[in-house]
């Protein structure tokens, strides 16, 4: 007996691989973990899984914003691209000067002019800067760098949502130790910690601002007396009449070398 199989002309349908965006992958992982957490009987294990799911959802939201930004950029680029149906330039047409290609985002830096500065407490080893940059934690680590010198730092963030950013500061108020200074990238911000250089007395100086008002010489220690006089001058300029009178008399005595001397009998009020 011969078995006859029916043949058809239809070709087998191959399964198509659908590429899932990274943001959707994170969201699907979070949903699966939440389902598993719901069936957990140990509270500590369930808490760990819920924490992981929350982190994945945050990453999914950040990646979603990046994907939408890239889609907008691609859409604009497609609209600006020349049509293939445009006629070619006739052979006898005069040559035209080629247009200068636009700069890529990596070559254009948007200055960062808003950040938070924390001078720390007296004796602290670091001063800290907090720079808010939404979704900065979603870009590759090699897109972010920060170079330190004893009196400067230079933070560069490349290709974040189609833009590149830079924060450069020189003439820092005090010297720093470049090898101990560091930066940390969070989900939506960058934290820079500048390691203070110790003073000649082995302690850490207190910073009143990020940069010095006057040009400093790297490695040169500040004169304590000059710093006090500068502080008194600032107080005099911003004080009221009584404050100006008191500071003026103190500065005059300092110039005469009268500060610190014991008062004579002629300076004492005996109430007579």
Layout of helices and strands:
Blueprint: H1 22-38, H2 43-80, E1 109-111, E2 116-118, E3 126-132, E4 144-149, E5 152-160, E6 163-169, E7 182-185, E8 189-195, H3 224-238, H4 241-256
Parallel strand pairs: 1-6
Antiparallel strand pairs: 2-3, 3-8, 4-5, 5-6, 7-8
Describe the structure in your own words.
Helix 1 packs antiparallel against helix 2 (43-80) and helix 3 runs antiparallel to helix 4 (241-256). This protein is elongated. The longest helix is centred in the first third of the chain and has 38 residues, at 43-80. The chain has 272 residues and is α+β, with helices and mostly antiparallel strands. The protein has helices at 22-38, 43-80, 224-238, 241-256, and strands spanning 109-111, 116-118, 126-132, 144-149, 152-160, 163-169, 182-185, 189-195. The protein has 4 helices and 8 strands. The protein has a 4-stranded mixed beta sheet with strand order 1-6-5-4, with no helix packed on it. It has a 4-stranded antiparallel beta sheet with strand order 2-3-8-7, with no helix packed on it. Strand 5 (152-160) and strand 6 form a beta hairpin.
Q: Please tell me what the overall shape is.
A: elongated
| Average pLDDT number | 77
Strand content: 15-25%
Which structural category fits the helices and strands? alpha+beta
Largest sheet: 4 strands, mixed
N-to-C terminal Cα separation, in Å? 145 Å
Q: What assembly state would you assign to the polypeptide chains in this entry?
A: single chain
Radius of gyration computed on alpha carbons: 33 Å
Total strands: 8
- By DSSP (H or I, 4+ residues per run), the number of helices equals 4
Largest beta sheet: what is the strand line-up?
A: 1-6-5-4
Order of helical and strand elements? HHEEEEEEEEHH
User: Which parts are unreliable, with pLDDT below 50 for 5 consecutive residues or more?
Assistant: 84-88, 262-272
- Helix amount: 25-40%
